[in-house]
């Protein structure tokens, strides 16, 4: 049997003068960015899992940043597509924990000391995702002071309305309502408000009349649903591998992560369900 020659079907085989797949994706620096600090076999898994997670977060930020801008303009259809994509990105991030959980406590211990004080707690992209979606805490910015450009980026985000704030603007405009300015605090997490919950309840009680808002609400719930699963699987993965040891970055580890599970990004959209 003669070996298949792709060039016979017109496939280009020489890229001495043209951009190749490797060039377009800048694979040389990406695939050369795994620098183990030990000889431990499983450190490669640890590095790649976190690097790929940061790449998915990079895409999530790209999507929710544009989605917020378009939502502010009242351009709903592309927003729905982008928010759906963000939810699926969080699902992808969630699945990554399944791979990391194949590493045992003994295997992690073999290189854990080499991490020094570095920790996922220090991910500026994760922090920015939280800030954009509304979970804001100025104290979390201090960890980025050694990188002025990252600190400035987070500070700028703290001066903007969150994704949920912009959604509330649309809710108010479509229902001919207004919400008190103090509900739009930019420097702290959004606190559940009875008036906002009543407004969303009107949407859910008559979805046919308010279909666009109804779909927006469900897209937001989808995002938070997948985001919660991601955080929950983070907790269980950490507990499975290191138990209740302190995190490498100095946090209380599992105890800190469990506290984060109590955070509600869009509280009224969850609370109203018990009243419908």
Question: Please, could you describe this protein's structure?
Answer:
The protein is mostly helical and 276 residues long. It has one domain (40-275): Methane Monooxygenase Hydroxylase, Chain G, domain 1 (Up-down Bundle), CATH 1.20.58.480. 58% of the residues lie in helices and 0% in strands. It has helices at 21-24, 27-31, 43-72, 76-100, 105-112, 124-133, 148-157, 163-175, 194-205, 211-242, 254-260, 267-271. Helix 10 packs antiparallel against helix 11. It is globular. The model has no long low-confidence stretch (mean pLDDT 91).
Secondary-structure element order, as H and E?
HHHHHHHHHHHH
State the domain count. 1
Mean pLDDT: 91
Structural class: mainly alpha
How many individual helices?
Answer: 12
State which percent range the strand residues make up: under 5%
Q: Uncertain runs with pLDDT below 50, 5 residues or more? A: none
Major β-sheet annotation: none
The name of the CATH topology is Methane Monooxygenase Hydroxylase, Chain G, domain 1
Q: Using the 3D structure, state the CATH architecture.
A: Up-down Bundle
Can you tell me the overall shape?
globular
CATH class: Mainly Alpha
Q: Rounded to an integer, what's the Rg over CA atoms?
A: 22 Å
Number of beta strands: 0
Task: Measure the end-to-end span.
Answer: 68 Å
Concise account of the structure shown:
The protein is mainly alpha-helical and 276 residues long. 58% of the residues lie in helices and 0% in strands. Helix 3 (43-72) packs antiparallel against helix 4 (76-100), helix 3 (43-72) packs parallel to helix 8 (163-175) and helix 6 (124-133) packs parallel to helix 7.
């Amino acid at each position: 049997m003669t070996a298949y020659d792709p060039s016979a079907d017109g496939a280009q085989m020489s890229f001495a003068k043209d951009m190749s797949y490797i060039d377009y994706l800048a694979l040389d620096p990406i695939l050369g960015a795994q620098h183990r600090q030990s000889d431990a076999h499983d450190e490669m898994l640890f590095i790649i899992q976190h690097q790929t997670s940061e790449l998915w977060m990079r895409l999530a930020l790209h999507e929710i940043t544009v989605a917020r801008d378009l939502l502010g303009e009242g351009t709903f259809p592309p927003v729905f597509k982008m928010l759906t994509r963000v939810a699926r990105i969080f699902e992808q991030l969630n699945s990554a924990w399944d791979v990391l959980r194949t590493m045992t406590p003994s295997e992690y211990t073999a290189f854990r000391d080499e991490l020094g004080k570095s920790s996922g707690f220090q991910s500026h992209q994760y922090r920015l995702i939280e800030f954009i979606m509304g979970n804001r805490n100025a104290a979390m910015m201090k960890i980025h002071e050694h990188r002025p450009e990252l600190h400035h980026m987070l500070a700028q985000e703290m001066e903007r309305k969150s994704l949920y704030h912009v959604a509330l603007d649309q809710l108010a405009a479509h229902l001919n309502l207004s919400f008190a300015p103090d509900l739009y605090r930019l420097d702290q997490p959004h606190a559940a408000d009875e008036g906002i919950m009543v407004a969303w309840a009107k949407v859910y009680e008559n979805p046919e009349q308010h279909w666009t808002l109804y779909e927006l609400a469900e897209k937001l719930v989808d995002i938070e649903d997948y985001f919660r699963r991601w955080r929950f699987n983070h907790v269980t993965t950490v507990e499975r591998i290191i138990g209740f040891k302190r995190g490498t970055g100095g946090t209380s580890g599992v105890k800190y992560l469990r506290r984060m599970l109590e955070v509600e990004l869009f509280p009224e959209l969850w609370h109203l369900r018990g009243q419908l």
